[in-house]
Fold this sequence. Notes:
The complex is a heterodimer of chains A (228) and B (367).
Chain A: H1 3-12, H2 23-54, H3 59-71, H4 74-87, H5 96-119, H6 123-131, H7 136-166, H8 179-188, H9 191-219
Chain B: E1 7-14, E2 24-31, E3 36-40, H1 47-54, E4 62-67, E5 70-71, H2 77-82, E6 84-88, H3 99-103, H4 105-109, H5 114-127, H6 144-156, E7 162-166, H7 174-191, E8 194-199, H8 202-208, E9 211-216, E10 220-225, H9 227-232, H10 237-243, H11 247-254, E11 267-269, H12 274-284, E12 288-293, E13 296-302, E14 322-323, H13 329-338, E15 344-348, E16 351-356, H14 358-366
Parallel strand pairs in B: 3-8, 3-9, 6-7, 7-8, 11-12, 14-15
Antiparallel strand pairs in B: 1-2, 1-4, 4-5, 9-10, 12-13, 15-16
Helix pairs in contact in B: 5-6, 11-13
Amino acid sequence: MTTWESVQEFLSEPTTWSGPDSIWTRLGEHIWVSVAAVIIAGLLVLPLAVWLGHIRRGSAVATAVVNIGRAVPSFGILAIAFLVLVQMGAGVGEPWAVLVALIALAAPPMFTNTVAGIQAVEPATIESARGMGLTEREVLTGVELPLSAPLMMEGVRIAFVQVIATATLGALVAWGGLGRYIVDGFARQDMGRLIVGAVLVGLLAIAAELGLSAMQRAATPHGIRPAR
Amino acid sequence: MAGDPMIRLENVKKVFPGSSRAAVTDLSLDIGRGECVTLIGPSGCGKTTTLKMINRIIEPTSGRIEIDGRDAMAIPAHELRRSIGYVIQQIGLFPHRTIAQNIGTVPALVGWDQARIDERVAELVEIVGLDAEMMARYPSELSGGQQQRAGVARALAADPPVLLMDEPFGAVDPIVRKRLQHEFHDLQGRLGKTVVFVTHDVDEAILLGDRMAILNIGGIIEQYDIPEKILAEPASDFVERFLGGERGLKRLALLPINEADLEHGPFVDVSTTPAEAHRVMEQHGVDWLGLLDDERLLGWVDGDLVDSKPLRDLDPRPFLVTLDTESTLRSALDAVVTSHARVAVVVDDGIYRGMLDLESIAEGITE
């Protein structure tokens, strides 16, 4: 059987299109865990990052965080989180370990880009804002956040695309998502299943990249858009 | 300065954290209502620190600052600042807001309705000499000079009684700077704000300052007086060195032409006879003759031509540079060295008012 035939065979099976192992189920699992990981990571780190950016401290912390984030393997975190959570009574096949690993993956780029984005606002702009009588809150919401929005959104984009690619690993700790097809494909020597899973993860990552790039452009205030 | 000062600094001191020396040691300074005071001195003299303590961008370590009789420290900083216009060298316009939105910042903060803001913005755009079409643009679409005009308009927006300016024209090219300085001088004359203006440019300090304060390292006031007085009688070697060369010329730039000092000179009406013309030239010791037609200045002719035909039929040459009664002695001096006849001619609406020569200009400065 050629590779192409095995792909066709996989796509022709009824369980591919409905039921607990269908593309829609796996896609849904993959997306909700990824979105949840980015949102929770954002809720956890953005307030601290915004505050550090506003008081113009912590750029060293921001650099260290992103370096540690790069150095720590997501798979390692996933394995440890899985073991710890199962010890604590979580069921095998539940998404919590995946979520923890993905939050740890998503947090560093969002943290770093937010601190850097706010600190990149011209000191003169902020001084003149204060000089005109804006309160600290108004300086933050009226000047620093709008001007740092493009860099913050870039952090979200980087985090989200990484998370979508990495959520594939969830299948290794008995969770679902599109990684299920890849892991099962290997195990069952089912090339069609494996390829469909890999292509879907790729397409999803590209879609996320394009969608969030558009959001990043939309978040860029008019006056600081690069001239075309 | 009548009445209480608008701004009063009393024994103000600033030591920055981690620094062993005070940036400003013990400064006391009164600035009168409607007065423009320029702060000038070498770098490290604390002039910018002093300015920024007035609106508490920098909080003083000790001492008292009063604005319009109120203790500046007793008011929340943001409220204090809404009644003080602030212009800095880097301008600091909000890049994500249009020029109109930038100018309307403080009115919006203090709660004006949009119609009133729009009206005020349009008025200010005109006052600072921007085109109305600039209002919809973003700061990055304006030249440096235009941005600084917008910066001044933004500072004036809610009509604050006090204006703080920190080297506002320092970053624009010399030609634009000169124009902005003169326009600001005129504007200040009309608006009568109380202005504190930091600069490192002596000529700018002299031009714009009703009084100037010359600061030495550590915020020590070396001299605080009207520019004329400082130029004429520098209080210390430091001030003299700081003012640099050409002090005489700088003073001339401050002194207006005194109409009482004008001489009539060798100027005669075209109806004058040649004999009389010769007598006038001889009396003044010159070989040229200024021609007037019923008080109107026609120009001058070479003394050799006086006998050739009636004065009325001669073809007089124009004076290259003429002054009006508003001119300064410095421009008079310029006219003297530029003109063929070595005199500065003062004309008011075409009517000849008199002339100055080198000697009368020199007398003006020694008076």
